[in-house]
Amino acid sequence: METRILGKDLKVSAIGLGCMGLSHANGAPTEENEAVRLLREAVEDGYTFFDTAETYGYKEDPHHNEKLLGKAFSGMRGKLVIATKFGVWFDYSENEYHPKLNADSRPETIRKSVDESLKRLNTDYIDLYYQHRVDPNVEPETVAEVMSELIKEGKIRHWGVSMASEDYIRRAHAVCPLTASQNVYSLIAPDESLFSTFEELNIGLVSCCPIAKGLLTGAYTKGQEFEQGDYRRGSAWFSDETMDKTQPLLDYLTQLGKEKNATLGQLSLAWMINKKPWIVPIPGTRKSSRLKENAGAGDIRLTAEEVAGIDAAITIGTT
């Protein structure tokens, strides 16, 4: 798989793997041996960039996902780029399927989090350490200063933010340069309002939910049922209204796919990586077939006219 550069010098595969769904938000977690097998298969398929977080787990094992990566990647650490996150914790006391998200980016919490993540990941450094969500009680300068210290100590090599505003990004970057920002970005959530900021500051965009949790594959229909613990259950993305609005876009992609010999999911990924050299999508999957399919998106070349055509189809689907 081809590679891209996030920030100044973080080299990653053009398509990364979002690992959350193996442990969290997609219903019951994947059986451990199968998850480990899939992660190792991803390496064989050319993935080098793997995204997790300290909170990707479930009530009985809230840090399940990091431990999976630590087990799967034993002995191959130097070949891979691992991103994980700090700054939130889940309260499972009221709803174990949709726990309440709480922010905490106090310096002492960050230091505790990084040390525990290093142990679970079975590594002595983290390639990319994200602030998972902004903590309204902690200034960005304070968080950035801790990141600067962790970089000097060798515990992390790069840092980033997730779902942060332009003002927050600029203030944090001024103290310790950011390598990446992780945001929801896809054909049904095509917000490019921060693009000029990313280009000015040389910050990469890591796109989470780039296929809209599978919606853009065309595999789901109206009335789709999802199991308890699957965050798609009740999601507006899978409502009948959204399905109807998205259909013209899917029809357009279907026709383009015939011309490019590509699937809907591949075109959804190719659209963004052909837009900017600093965008890296991290689709998740539990299936070997999807793993290979998504990896193939990195080889699809779209002309400026084809990208513009997809942009026009997006407009039809969102009006």
TrEMBL record:
Sorted keywords for this record are: Oxidoreductase
InterPro entries referenced in this protein's UniProt entry, alphabetically: Aldo-Keto_reductase (IPR050791), NAD(P)_OxRdtase_dom_sf (IPR036812), NADP_OxRdtase_dom (IPR023210)
Cellular component terms (Gene Ontology): cytoplasm
- Metal-binding listed as a keyword: no
One of the entry's Gene Ontology molecular-function terms is:
oxidoreductase activity
Cite the Pfam families for this sequence.
Aldo_ket_red
Q: Where is the NADP-dependent oxidoreductase domain?
A: 15-313
Q: Does the keyword ATP-binding apply?
A: no
PANTHER family per UniProt: AFLATOXIN B1 ALDEHYDE REDUCTASE, ALDO-KETO REDUCTASE YAKC [NADP(+)]
Q: What is this protein identified as?
A: Aldo/keto reductase
- Species of origin reads Acutalibacter muris
